[in-house]
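Sync notes, pocket subgroup
Present: LS, DG
LS reminded everyone that the earlier model was apo-only. Rerun requested with UFG included. Inputs:
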Amino acid sequence: MKILVTGGLGFIGSHTVVELQNSGYEVIIIDNCSNSSTDVIKGIVSITGKQPIFEQFDLREKNKVDDFFSRHTDIEGVIHFAASKAVGESVEKPLLYYENNIATLVYILQHLSLKASSSFIFSSSCTVYGQADELPITENAPVKIAESPYGNTKQIGEEIIQDTCKVTPNLKAIALRYFNPIGAHPSAEIGELPIGVPQNLIPYITQTAIGLREQLSVFGNDYPTSDGTCIRDYIHVVDLAKAHVVALQRLLEDKNSTNYEVFNVGTGTGSSVLEVIKSFEKVSEEKLNYKIVNRREGDITAAYADTTKANHELGWQAKSSLDDALSSAWKWEKKVRT
Ligand code: UFG
């Protein structure tokens, strides 16, 4: 069964391709390599022993999208990762984000809605909840006004899919709201490779420990949390990848009660920045150079998932601990730099 994975060479996409191939699916990847490399294919092949089909083009080129779907009429499911994801950049270049994240989504849905049957999984984010009023966050928590064009593309993306599903019964879709994906494949054949200075906590930690960055700045210790630092729900990328496979199976087997559903994908446990540092120091046996600095603009105090819906409906739950995830991120960092 053929599954299209857009952005399949990226961090979450590549781990999902591995899980799909290990579950017997035939994968076609579309990626423009704007934030990834074709070297990732070697990693995928070395883990799975299978070569995914790969086409390099930009989904903003509608004629190429049209041509792709006219050549591949037997695609049964689409997992759509391809998108820009830097919050700060989205504030500077909103139109780039709306074109990359929204126009491309529309082009793909236009094709899927013409098919007799199709299954679609969308990469959404817990960013849609903003600072939720209640923790842990359930899928019923209200969507808050987006803090950035990036966050807005996730909200608008969900609405576009929902509106399309309403009038297209043959289209079945699931939006997965990711919490904070971290870590790497335990083989260290694939992992996260941020371009330039990392914006996210874990790659900044591992790059500091390996000597690429001098010091980690901890953004604020005056939040109303137990140790004053922000709390997030860090999920191992392999657990997250597996959630895509079970969500896809649910769509393909027609087990969903409606043709559009939303699931939180997290561990259900919140960890503070200082707890993450402590866990990293334990698993890596490295002392991390860090200092407390001012808060980062736009950061929320705390977010962690209520995963009951995914546990019950998808039969999925995160298996890896924070230690496991950080240990895999460290193994990957050491491999990449040597
Ligand atoms: N942090 C630091 N120092 C750093 C980087 C991060 O202290 O150098 C802190 C942040 O203040 C925050 C925590 O580490 O408290 C996690 O920060 P990340 O940047 O790793 O993750 P965020 O939760 O801010 O953002 C992530 C994604 C966004 C997405 C958001 C909500 O990067 O794309 O989750 O889904 F919008």
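DG: The pocket of UFG is lined by residues 85, 87, 125-127, 151, 180, 199-201, 204, 216-219, 230, 232, 273, 296, 299 (CB under 6 Å).
LS: The radius of gyration is 19 Å.
Action: DG to write up.
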